[in-house]
Amino acid sequence: MRITDLESGTVYAVRTPFRDDRGTLVLEGDRMTYERHRAVPFEGAFEVAFREETLVLHEDRQKDVVEHAERFLREV
After folding, report:
1. Tell me: the pLDDT tens digits for 8-44?
2. φ, ψ of residue 26 in degrees (nearest 5)
3. Contacts for 73 with CB less than 8 Å, ≥ 6 apart
4. What is the DSSP string of 12-76?
5. Is 35 helix (H, G, I), strand (E, B) or coil?
6. Which superkingdom heads the taxonomic lineage of this protein's source (predicted)?
7. How far apart, in whole angstroms, are the C-alpha atoms of residue 16 and residue 40?
């Protein structure tokens, strides 16, 4: 599941800790309510808005999170 497949309004719990492209640490057990995403094409990244935090995930540097979101997030 790609990060773009997350469903708006759904609460996700973090399975595996990770950092976004700005260095924000997301910890196991954190709960986040997905709102939307926006591609940032000139940076090759996604801005992923959760109610609690906005993350920036780069297509290359956070490839695992972008391409395999189910390994990092689970629906609550």
Report:
1. 999 999 999 999 999 999 999 999 999 999 999 888 9
2. -105, 120
3. 6, 12, 13, 14, 15, 32
4. EEESS-EE-TT--EE-TT-EEEEEEEEEETTTTEEEEEESS-EEEEETTTTHHHHH-GGGTEEE-
5. strand
6. Bacteria
7. 25
